[in-house]
Amino acid sequence: MSSNQQAQIRYQVLDRCFSDFSGKKYFIKDLVQACEKAMEREYGHTNGCSERQIRNDIQYMKRAEGYNAPIQRYYEGKPVYYRYTDEHYSIRNSELSTTQKKQILDALHLLSGMEGLPGLEWATTALVKLGEGFDMNRETNKVVSFEENMYLKGLEYFDVLYQAILAFRVLEITYQPFHQDTSRKELISPQYLKQYNNRWFLFGYNHKEEKVQNLALDRIKEIGDNRKELYKYADFNYEEYFDDIIGVSQFPNQELEKVVLQVKNLKLLPYIQTKPLHSSQKIDKELNQIKLQVKLNYELEAVILSLGDQVSVISPPILVENIRKKINNMQSNYECSDSA
């Protein structure tokens, strides 16, 4: 959960407390407890609910760049309690500040710049309408460019899959893997979309295989609804799934491996430090080695090969052998034949 999401929950709780004119008085400790209960209920923890944080939240809500909320301190002896001066006020009914309007418009500008991704066409329309409503229309050149492939196959299915995930719909997907001449039909409860290396992948529960499966969108041939099967939600943590791998693929019962790469070109190290190969990456500056804790897969090998002769694999042995075979195959592609 992001810090912005946590803050929004606190603002909503504080808003309810400040709007309570039933006679209950909310001192700072009461506000902290109310926020803690909400966080515990929503996310199972009470992080970010200290007295200092709540006081900062109150100051933000009172400022013009926040909600310009009419929050008043009322003294009852030494301690003070907080309440709105206007019992009809709520941040849910307040107008957006100039800062908030600008933040929304900036976000829409970014979204509208993500060309080629179906489902985001609304951002351009919303940008125009909101600009008119806020009296903040502006002509701007594109100042942010996202890495994208306008000609990538399968993007036309993105919005269909996204909406199916939100609606808990079972899909019948005609799919043709690489290196296979025929397609097959998969019965999928879609759950997650992931982008890697400019390709999109759908993750979902395969009803026939009874397991979570990923399908590349550029290999999908057709999508249809299946109204007979009940949606099956796999109890699967996708964030944890990607923690231990580079890319999207892993195999059942795989163990983590300690991967050690020997850096041959020391000029590579600063580049690798600023753009880590994986979140587990550690740099041994004395030995000039890159160390990873990952599961072995095709994407890892592709990343290593992309570094060319600037690195060599030290361990594990199976990865050394896999890379050696691929390099030997590459070399044979460039060997001159006797007839040449």
From TrEMBL:
Residues 156-223 form the WYL domain. It comes from Myroides odoratimimus CIP 101113. InterPro entries: CBASS_pafABC_assoc_protein (IPR051534), WYL_dom (IPR026881). This is WYL domain-containing protein.
